[in-house]
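Why do we care about 3D structure at all? Because function follows from shape, and shape follows, mostly, from sequence. That is the central idea of this module. The next example makes it concrete: a single protein chain, its amino acid sequence, and then its structure expressed as tokens.
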Amino acid sequence: MSPSGVRGKFITVEGQDGAGKTTNLGQIERVIRASGYEVLRTREPGGTPLGDTIRGLVLHGGNLDIDPMAELLLIFAARAQHLNAVIRPALTAGMWVVCDRFTDATYAYQGGGRGMDVGVIGEIEQSVQQDLRPNLTLLFDVDIATGAERAGERSGHDRFESEEAAFKGRVRDAYLARARAEPDRIRVIDAVGSLDRVQGAVESIMREYIDSLR
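And the structure:
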């Protein structure tokens, strides 16, 4: 239990490739810790030995012809293990969990990017997650050209970073559509600009959310 009596909260961080979400995870953690809460930081796909193995297949299995449905099921298999072995126990213990990507990414990449039926994604989501959903999601948004330029500066592109611009455009559109549908949960951050400005926006959103719980 936290000092203020607030139970653990589940915070997710989303954004297309090159949006800078990973860069800002530390800032989110710092604000939470400064408010007196314990934090567990994790990621998807991954977070467990099984999840990390699946991550390697999904992100770096460049020589594998992975069917979109197989990709979707692999991601949810990793998520089921992650939830039951890591996320749920941490939340039950009163910790805050900050996760680099979660199910919104599945709707964006497999739904928007791959064109998978979102109804099917929703059915699997309900089966795997039951009533667990993020309490707050920070969506780092960047235009496709800027995102591609930033991602291009990194070495070893994964299967999604190597996709064409049209794919990345569908991913971004799907993310923004979800933000419009759930504005109270998903807070969009304009990730174009200086790191100081983006981190200022992150701190403002996190402090506003934490203050609302007290």
